[in-house]
Amino acid sequence: MSVTDVLVVGGGIAGLTAAIRVADLGHAVTVINRAESPQESNTRYAQGGIIWEDEFPESLAHDIDMAGDKIGGERASRILADEGGPFVASFLIDRLQVPFDRDSAGEIHRTAEAAHSRPRIIHVKDQTGAALQEALTREASRHPLIRIATSATAVDLITSTHHSRLRGAIYEQTAVLGAYVLSGDAVETMLASYTVLATGGLAALYAYSTNPEGARGDGFAMADRCGAHIVDMEYVQFHPTAFRREGCPAFLISEAVRGEGGILLNLAGERFMERYCPDLLELAPRDEVSRAVALEMRRTAAANVLLDLSPLRARGMDVSARFPGIHRTCLGMGVDIRTDSIPVAPAAHYTCGGIRVDGWGRSNLRNMYAVGEVSCTGLHGANRLASTSLLEGLVWGKRAAENICGNFEREDFARWEIPDWDITEVVAEPNLEWSAQMHARLREVMWENVGLVRSEETLGQAWREVSAMAIDVEEAYRHTRLTDLLVGLRNAVQAALLVITQARRNRGSRGCHYREDYPPAE
Ligand code: SIN
User: Are 340 and 265 in contact (CB under 8 A)?
Assistant: First the structure.
């Protein structure tokens, strides 16, 4: 058993920012990351960049609202627009010295992205996430009040209502008191006065995804099991341009490529966006571009469309220098972006919904905060504006830390009588092959039935199949020695059901939730 002031579950931009700010303010933090390396997180894979809008916050708030189909929370977009710019400057640029690209005059370069009314995305080539992750990990690792535990998987949150043996605890407001954490073969009781979930999203539950396998919905499922409010899960955002070639893994081709002038062509060489979004073309909001690509693929019976970089080259841009990560990865798959177009198709990318939190990252459960993609601050509405996610993680990570430390009360753990993890029902050894097969089947079901275009029929089909999987997985979970894979499978199935049931309940089409049986009003 261990005790800390604040437990942060997840080590990407939101979790590490929260940890650093809590430690700055004098409290001890433990960060757990299920990966072997503290450098691994979904943040690391972000390519395009992060918004730095220090001049026109109103225009940023307006763009966020428009991209989100005007259902997002105005308070959230004001917080992001007002606080984001100054915090990027003081924290990322001045303190962490993130090496953002600069122009010939030495100014930080700002690029354009879809649905932004002005260039405001700052970047480190096409590997912004990796640069941020490195800087944050370096800062957190040298902070004396921060402990980072790797290969540590949260199995379940510890709560007063579900785990305490104290008489009457079940009738009090649920308090989150830390987590049971799998490390090696043992499950440790990690008690914490405050718990911050920063586990990222669930896009890896789809057969085609831009996310690493860790984006499997752990945080949504753990929070759901304790009674957190989870909303807007139907709004799963699909990125229009992931690398797509038979036999090759999907891989993000940053929106910045279109921001710099890349155009989309069908296999006959036609610029089809002229028919779908004649005003904004390739820089229309992401949900519209993704659907246009999918419809064009269907219309032409093609497995992909093409992202043509010739306008960038015609301007004299050395595309391999501007996009070195994309260049390297494409080259490994037989595509040279200096001469070739890139075969692309949509892939699951971002979870707009999540654990409902307020402007400070507070959930409805006492002492549980959620920050970053696992949370729903209301910022994204029905569709996220490109490059807002890193900034949201940063701003809410900071705000959650400041709220915790400003109201800090140490929990009296002895009072709650929390038992250690119980393994008395464990009788079976893990079946890794079965777990991997179930994961693979889940991804197919989600892609086929809960993808860019859904209907009552496809959602019903997914609900029946995933509900049946949930029964088998829960049985296995109860009787099998735990592994990270099994914990993840259990969470994945539960998170998928959250998406399916919320998508089924929402009989309308808006932003990234498009129902064929309820098309949007013209
Ligand atoms: C990209 O580089 O296209 C991803 C940026 C984002 O999703 O915000």
Answer: no
* CATH code for the structural domain at 2-47+127-234+352-416: 3.50.50.60
Is the domain defined by 432-505 classed in CATH 3.30.450.20? Answer: no
**514 CA distance to ligand 1 centroid (A)?**
21
Provide the mean pLDDT of the chain.
97
Lookup: tokens for 333: 């798959």
Does 466 have pLDDT greater than 80?
yes
Q: Where are the domains of the chain?
A: 2-47+127-234+352-416, 240-347, 432-505
Which residue is closest in CA terms to ligand 1's atom 1? 254
Q: Environment class of residue 36 by beta-carbon count within 10 Å: exposed (0-12), middle (13-18) or buried (19+)?
A: exposed
* Rounded mean pLDDT, 471-489: 97
Q: Which CATH architecture has domain 240-347?
A: Alpha-Beta Complex (3.90)
Of 13, 43, 47, the one to substitute when testing ligand 1's pocket (max ligand atoms within 8 A of C-beta) is 47
- 473 Cβ contact list (under 8 Å, min separation 6): 438, 489, 490, 493
Of 159, 154, 162, the residue nearest 374 (C-alpha): 154
pTM tops 0.90? yes
List the catalytic residues: 286
Can you give the pLDDT at residue 367?
A: 98
Cβ–ligand 1 contact at 43 (below 6 Å):
no
> With a 6 A CB cut-off, is 241 part of the ligand 1 pocket?
no
Query: What is the per-residue pLDDT across 409-440, written as a single tens digit (0 to 9) for each?
Result: 999 999 999 999 998 899 999 999 999 999 99
CA of 387 to the centre of ligand 1 (A): 5
Q: Separation of 47 CA from ligand 1 center, angstroms?
A: 6
